[in-house]
UniProtKB/TrEMBL annotation:
InterPro entries: Ribonucl_H (IPR013520), RNaseH-like_sf (IPR012337), RNaseH_sf (IPR036397). It comes from freshwater metagenome. Gene3D superfamilies: Ribonuclease H-like superfamily/Ribonuclease H. This is Unannotated protein. NCBIfam families: PRK05359.1.
Length: 86
């Protein structure tokens, strides 16, 4: 991830100015789910597997959206989907 960010900082200055200095590494969240919530991990959406930049980005966004919904506390309900599902 730092290689990607260094590339952006070097070659995409306007994009770099737009991005926050904190970044989210979806694979770290995925690894935490694998260790702490295996049921949630194994229910994650399948990747397209096309290994093209845009496809990988879309897969990562979908995966992060899934983990956000499945693992993190919702402000509206103050519970996670996993707690609701048992």
């Amino acid at each position: 991830m730092s290689v990607d960010r260094n590339f952006i900082a070097r070659d995409m200055l306007k994009l770099n100015e737009y991005l926050h200095y904190r970044t989210i590494d979806v694979s770290s969240i995925k690894e935490l789910a694998r260790r702490w919530h295996p049921k949630t991990y194994f229910a994650a959406p399948a990747k397209t597997g096309n290994h093209r930049a845009l496809g990988d980005i879309r897969d990562s966004i979908a995966e992060l959206a899934y983990y956000r919904q499945a693992l993190f506390i919702s402000a509206a309900t103050n519970s996670t989907a996993e707690e609701s599902n048992g």
